[in-house]
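hey can u check if this looks right to u? its 133 residues, i copy pasted from the old doc so theres a chance i mangled smth
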Amino acid sequence: MPGVELMGPHGGELAAAYAGGFVSATGIMMAAGRWVWTKFGDKRIDELKAELASINAARVEDQRRHEEERNRDREIYRRELDRQSDRILVLESMLLQAGGAQRQSVQAALSEQSVRVTEVAHGAVKIETEPKQ
């Protein structure tokens, strides 16, 4: 050993004592660490697992609430769309009953949207829509 000659005649014994002390100190520290871990570490892991479970439960609840809000918004949108569609049909019928040049303009505009207008009786019209292709 290169450092042993510098320590004099008892350098080997000193190195062996140092190594023994190092090994025993490491063993003591490992035993103390194991005791601390079993005393506090497992308890903390259980706390963290419980916290994670509550976070996951809250996340599931948030997802459920978000889905309910989205469904409610879709229903509101669908009802509003139905009301707008009904209003458009009423307005188109009113414009078509006006007669004259205005009726021809409205009928031309509607025919571009694939809408078929037929006169049913005394100024009353029937509007049928066909899906665009």
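The radius of gyration is 43 Å.
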